[in-house]
Design goal:
Rossmann fold, UDP-galactose 4-epimerase, domain 1, binds uridine-5'-diphosphate-4-deoxy-4-fluoro-alpha-D-galactose, alpha/beta, seven-stranded parallel β-sheet, three-stranded mixed β-sheet, 10 helices
Amino acid sequence: MKILVTGGAGYIGSVVTEHLLDGAHEVVAVDNLSTGHRGAIDARVSFREIDLLDEPSLAAILGGVDAVCHFAAFSQVAESVADPLKYYRNNVGGAVALLDAMRKRGVKYFLFSSSAAVYGEPDETPIGEEAPLRPLNAYGNTKLAIERILADCSVSWGLRSLSLRYFNAAGAGARHGEDHRPETHLIPLALDVALGRRDELVVYGDDYPTHDGTCVRDYIHVKDLATAHMLGLEKLIGGYSGVLNLGNGRGFSVLDVIRAAEKVTGLAVARRIGDRRAGDPAVLVASSEKAERVLGWKRFYPSIDEIIRDAFIWKKAHPEGYPE
Ligand code: UFG
């Protein structure tokens, strides 16, 4: 199949692209390189530096495309609270322009990179897809808005879409890893401290109602996410539309992750307990039972040690991230 990947120079987009190429798909990738990296683009990809708001350019490259995997988005929660319009313009506006171009070119299959952020603070865990949708920030609101736009497009012009709600993506692929600037995510920050690239990790609060007082999250290996995308694409082309959680089904606290990072690296992770970070729910753990059932998805890398080990291998090989 010929697949258009938006955000192909980003973290999850580049790892999924790697899997699509290895699965003998033809990939056309677009990215405006505002947060993605040219160095993350595989030589086998036909790459275009295009902004999603540039609908005519998108329409021009959609010829012959069978399906779209849409990753391109801003994804920093705190930034989305400070500058919501930046998020609505890029995330929602970009998705609307992309969908309009698809409608005009008759492309009907859309795999969407959604987020656990659509749930906000859950009433209970593990979180199923039927849980209340109450995003706590503009980032989560943009993801939910797009899911609703997809449902409307399905009624109006027969779009088939699959929204994959990721929990905490982590780890690295064989050739691609995490390089956010600035980095805000726990595992790469802990590894930077272990490697002496940062002085300490600030643990955002230890007074949550969890086993050790620090927040619990569901870390899912990015390679397992990629497998789910491959299966999801097949399902989508087979006519399935829907929403699926993608998580590991197990929660780890911030201190659990730090201890695992120390074990895997053999290095100390200096940390200090700081204030809570605004908008952090105490516990976010997915039920991925529906994805397992619908897609026949199995996780090959469920261990937190293995997730951290792959992130560490990538970080040691790319201490400064991608060259550009
Ligand atoms: N944390 C720290 N110190 C840090 C960084 C993070 O204590 O320096 C804690 C956070 O408070 C949180 C946990 O580590 O409890 C994980 O934080 P991340 O920033 O790595 O990830 P989040 O859970 O905040 O966010 C992730 C994605 C978002 C998505 C969200 C959905 O990055 O895009 O999951 O749940 F919206």
